[in-house]
Amino acid sequence: MRLMGLDYGDKTIGVAVSDEMMWTAQGVEVIRRTDWERDVERLRQLMEQYEVSEIVVGLPKNMNGTIGPRGEICMEFAQSLQQILEIPVHLWDERLTTVSAERTLLEADVSRKKRKQVIDKLAAVFILQGYLDTKSNQ
């Protein structure tokens, strides 16, 4: 079984999955959000394809650790996913993951156009990898 990491945004959902040993996270795709049913159906298809047993959703906290409006939206999304997909859904502090993803892409000299296409997928990788790293150290 594998874990799936999600970077949930207004327009897109970045998706990453772990390897079977749950050591590393790899980017899978960026879902262009259309409507709730289609988004969930695509996530369900990816779950089946990669044999996902749990999901990790990035929780955007403020720098002081509080939860703002965007964080509340992500918490509602995670709760809805857990009810609909009937698998465990965990929230993971995603502070600075998009900044880290942007920096990584800039250092790799990826064009602005390409960065825009993959940044959410890379942010999902950072979210899932952070979760995996913490779990492997326990």
Automatic annotation (TrEMBL):
Its main location: cytoplasm. InterPro entries: RNaseH-like_sf (IPR012337), YqgF (IPR005227), YqgF/RNaseH-like_dom (IPR006641), YqgF/RNaseH-like_dom_sf (IPR037027). Residues 1-101 form the YqgF/RNase H-like domain. It holds the Pfam family RuvX. It is found in: Cytoplasm. Its EC number is 3.1.-.-. Keywords: Cytoplasm, Hydrolase, Nuclease, Ribosome biogenesis. Belongs to the YqgF HJR family. PANTHER family: POLYNUCLEOTIDYL TRANSFERASE, RIBONUCLEASE H-LIKE SUPERFAMILY PROTEIN. Could be a nuclease involved in processing of the 5'-end of pre-16S rRNA. This is Putative pre-16S rRNA nuclease. It comes from Ferviditalea candida.
